[in-house]
Amino acid sequence: MSTVDLNVDQQPATKDIGMVSSDVSAATTVNLIWQISTDGLIEKDWIDFLFSEFTVNHIDDPNFEVVIDHAIVITRGDPQGTTSVKDYLQRFKQQGYRVGVLHLSDEWFTSPVDFYAEADFVFRNFYRPDVAHLPHVLFVPVGYKQGLHKYTVERPIRDRQYYWSFAGQLGGKVSRRAMMEQAQNIPGGIAYVGKGYNDSKDLSFEGYVELICDTVFVLAPAGNRCAETSRFYEALEVGAIPIVEDVSKLNIIKQILKEVLKPEKAKQHKVWTLRYWKDAVSLLLEPSYWTQVFGPDFPCPKCSDWKQLAPTLAAVDVEAVAQETQAFWQAYKQQLKNDVRMIIARHFIQ
User: With b meaning 16 or more CB within 10 Å and e meaning fewer, what string describes 158-167?
Assistant: First the structure.
C-alpha cells in the first residue's frame, strides 16, 4: 500500500404522478433561479443532468429580485442564506406562479426548512428525517463533481491497476482513521490522505478521476453527518465498486456523546434542542441508511466495522458485483431523472 500526503478532500421514493412524454417536457422551459454563485460550482454537471430533459433558462439572482412563472429556486443549506427564502417564495404564490426549490447541501440538518411549505415541490440533498414525510419533497443525491466526465477513462474492472484506493481527508473522523488502519494492510491499494477538503496540492482533480477509473474498490466512508458523499457517486459513475460505511448504532451513540460532551460541538449542533434529539432517536431507530434510501436490493458492499474490510473485499465476486452495481446505478439515474421530469411537468405543464 502506498500513502501520499495530500489535501483533497436517497432515495427518491417513486410517486404515482402520471406519465409525461419527453417531447412535452423538452418543449417546456424551466427557469432556474440561482441564489448562489455558479462560479466553480461543483454540482453544476449533476444539476445539468437532472434537468437535461427540459429547456433550461439560467438566471443569476442573488438578491431575491426575479419572480417569474415556472421557476425553480436554487439555494444552499445555509441558515444565513435561507432566512429570506420563505418570504421570497410567497411572492411567487401571490402572483399565482408555480415555483419549486432545489435545496443543495444541508448535510448537518441546520438549515431552516419552513420555506418548503411555500413551494409546489422541493428537491433536496441528503435524507433528512424531519421532512421525509412531506409528499412534495424528493431527495436527490449530491451526485458527482463538476468535470468528472471530462477526465473519465473507461476501463474494464478486470484491467484496473489498484485493488482499492482512497483520496480524501481523515481529519477528526475516527472511523476514517480506523478504515485506513485496516486498508494499509491490504495489498494492491493506494491512499492519498490530506488535511482539508478539495486541497489538491499533490493530486489534481484530473489525477483523482484517473485514480478511481483505475481502481476496483473505492473506499467511500461516511461524510460529516450523513453516510453518503460525492465520492460514492463518482465511484459508481466511473464503473468502480464503492465500499460504503454502514454506520453502526454504536458509532451513532459515540457521535451523539461527542456532540453532547464537547461544548463547541454542542453549540454547533444545537444539542439542547428538541429537534436534535428527535433526529438522534430517528437515527437509532431507523434501518441502515443505504437500505432506507436505496431499498433492500442496494448492491454495494457495506462495512459497519472497518475491521471487516479485508474479508468484505475478499468475499466479493468482482465481475458479478461490478455488473450488478452498474445496472443498479444506471437504472437509478434513469428513474431519478424520470421522477424529476414528472414532478416538474405535473406542476409546470398545464
Answer: eebebbbbbb
Q: What is the pLDDT of residues 221-247, one digit of tens each?
A: 988 778 889 999 999 999 999 999 986
Distance in angstroms (rounded) separating the CA atoms of residues 29 and 31: 6
**Residue 156, exposed/middle/buried by CB under 10 A (0-12, 13-18, 19+)?**
exposed
Q: What is the distance between the alpha carbons of residues 214 and 236, in angstroms, rounded to a whole number?
A: 13
Residues contacting 315, CB < 8 A, separation 6+: 301
CA atoms 80, 84, 88, 90: torsion sign = positive
pTM: 0.81
Reduce the DSSP state of residue 59 to 3 states and report it. Answer: strand
Domains identified in the chain and CATH numbers: 29-140 (3.40.50), 148-248+288-331 (3.40.50.2000), 250-282 (no CATH)
Compute the distance between CA of residue 254 and CA of residue 267 in angstroms, rounded to an integer.
17
Q: Find out whether 345 and 15 touch, Cβ atoms under 8 Å.
A: no
Q: Is the dihedral of CA 280, 282, 288, 289 positive or negative?
A: negative
Under 8 Å between Cβ of 126 and 107: yes
